[in-house]
Amino acid sequence: MRTYGPRQFPDALGLAEWELERAQRLGLIPPPDVSGRWSEDVFTDVSGRMDAIRREIGTLPDVGARRAEDYLSERFGFTVHPGTAAELARRGHLPVRGDYKGHPLYCGLTLERFSDRGKVRRASAAGRLHMREEAARILGLRDADFDHLLRAGLLTHAETTTSSRSKHIVVRLYRQADLDRVLRSRRIDWAAVRATPKGRPSPLAQLPTRTH
Prior knowledge:
Blueprint: E1 3-4, H1 8-13, H2 17-25, E2 38-39, H3 40-47, H4 50-57, H5 65-76, H6 84-90, E3 96-100, E4 103-106, H7 108-113, H8 117-127, E5 129-131, H9 132-139, H10 143-151, E6 159-162, E7 170-175, H11 176-183, H12 190-195
Antiparallel strand pairs: 1-2, 3-4, 5-7, 6-7
């Protein structure tokens, strides 16, 4: 009896590797049934259901954050900021399906079927990422004040990227929702911080240093 190996089976069905993996994850295609290979009977059954299988698995593979955000932006017709995919995942709206070189891959099928514009807008606003200088500007802080927030553990970076000048320079990125949370903190007298003249110690210097 003829059997099909891991490459022969999807090739004969006209499936890409990601399509086969998704179809198996969804239970649309069974695992190999003959010593790690698919039997002729299984192949015949699956080939007869290919139209239905293709409808179920969709057309978008699992993708990285930038491609996911570009897809959502094009689909809904508004700007989707970097950090949105991670924020959707954080909120339980977008599953992570593995990774590529340490970066998460987001479920293409979920992206393809996503219909809630409001969730995307809210995730884009909350998850938007800022470099340090921009984050300090949003908070209305001097550079030294920003250091005090980091030292006290009131703020930490959400992601990292590499500098456009050198891949060896790591750039820390700060999430908008975390900046908003700090701005609401009752531990900080924002009026006093912003009123401190240049060259004078910041009230934030009194914050205890986080030890863990």
